[in-house]
Amino acid sequence: MKRWILSPPDPEKAGEISRSFNLSPLISQILVNRQVTTPEALSQFLQPSLGHLPDPSDMKDMDKATARLVQAIARKEPITIYGDYDVDGTTATALLMEFFRQVGATVDYYIPHRIHEGYSLNEAAMRQLAARGTRVLITVDNGISAVHEAQVAKELGMDLIITDHHEVPPTLPVAYAILNPKQAGDSFPGKELAGVGVAYYLLMGLRRALREAGLLKDQEPNLRQALDLVAVGTVADLAPLKGLNRILVREGLKVISKRGRLGFRALLDISGVDGEVRADQLAFRIGPRINAVGRLEEADLGVQLLLSEDAVQAGTLAERLDQANISRKVLEDQISEGAVTQIERDGILEKYRSIVLYQEDWHQGVIGIVASRLVDRYYLPTIVMTRDRAGIKGSARSIRNFHLVEGLRECADLLGKFGGHAYAAGLSLPEENLAAFRQRFDQVVRNRLNKEDFIPCLRMDVESSLQQIDPLFMEQLSRLEPFGLGNPAPLFFLKGALVKESRVVGEKHLKMRVGQGPRSLGAIGFRLGPRQPAGGTQVDLAFTPEWNEWNGSKNIQLRLIDLKGP
Q1: Domain ranges of the chain
Q2: H-type alpha helices, 139-286
Q3: CATH class label, 3-47+458-564
Q4: Which of 340, 365, 433, 488 has the fewest CB atoms within 10 Å around its CB?
């Protein structure tokens, strides 16, 4: 059972915003909750534009990186982009490839195989790239922890430019340039950019440097049109949709909705996305299909799709990604069932305040998704591990208030490598350390969290009435989009709604019509069927309002997140 927490109202501040910007009091209270209250912040939030983006030169090492790349382009030195197999890395690789081709650079890319090579730079691949003649090696979405590999690059005569967004380790690689807003001494404001966002900023800086050097020909690369790649990579990597990310994704959604890129057009078609594209559709329909080939096959297929200029080829590749996604779901279900069996068989919930699972034949490509599923089910920090060529490899997912990388740092002496973010991380360790790591990690969790932290919360923005949810309100609500991590869809509280109709559809979903005073609206609650209230009773609802289009008609409905009955 979730704890419901209603944000305390601030009618004075919300009223001031409502009057100044002609907004619904509900919308104004949501802005107060999100600490968007100054005139400047409100203007930028309600009317975000690319003009609000900071200068790329504000990012540490930007001028150094762009100067080297201008030199490489002018001299036709071979450049290789070293990507990653997830959506963030795939979109960033395509982004850089497209740009470098447009400016006439000698460029290629390399994406390591998830199973055979693992994450980030590896020495064997680097030696191959050097043998091919690579003079400048650019990482995207990786490299910040590659201390040894950076030294190898130097020995091989390659200038290494690292672009990454992961948490910065105590010891940085010695590279030609490092672009990561999180590193010490970097005053750049976009600390929460995804890997593709950092890569985009590199291109912003590089385009200007090429222009100043007189190396751009008749037509400059259109970076606005490349924002579709930035939007997909940012949303799929669960980067917070606030600040710079919100601007980049909002503009990127406009680009992807025009369906100009053949690869995205094919993916949108095969995943059944019509009309204007929303951020949640990138997260749950587009992202998983690109991710699937990186998990089960070759991530290179995703890059090929995104760079495709042939509609038939794009359609064929999109079908292959779709099939990989179907296979991924089957595999994910099988491993999830095995994980739940292991948890119940070993009494893990009775012994621990964390979940650490290992089975040697689990597929590396889906253990992160399985960990996320287990967090949703049990609400405990979770690590799912399998056998790797060098020992044990795992994916970790966390809960509110537990920072994974900081927690893993307290177990560093038992681990091989680890890195990531607050809520998602990867790690490796020798098999002989598994038992000790399970105990240590659980103790770290216990030390850092209190009893209430293990109870999931439902944080609601504001109490509303049905009368306030009208078309004008819906238009104002859309100005807060795109919604996602860091800028979630506002959650509303409705007290004492009368259940006028109630039924279960699709075996487990709840469909209702609820009323309050003279107004009534339809409501849908996915997977809430077992909690169906009887008609004529009163319920409290936690919901988000949305438009429902069906058979040519468009109506407001409530998307139920939770309910409490009599």
Answers
A1: 3-47+458-564, 56-258, 346-454
A2: 147-155, 195-212, 227-236, 244-257, 262-270, 279-281
A3: mainly beta
A4: 488
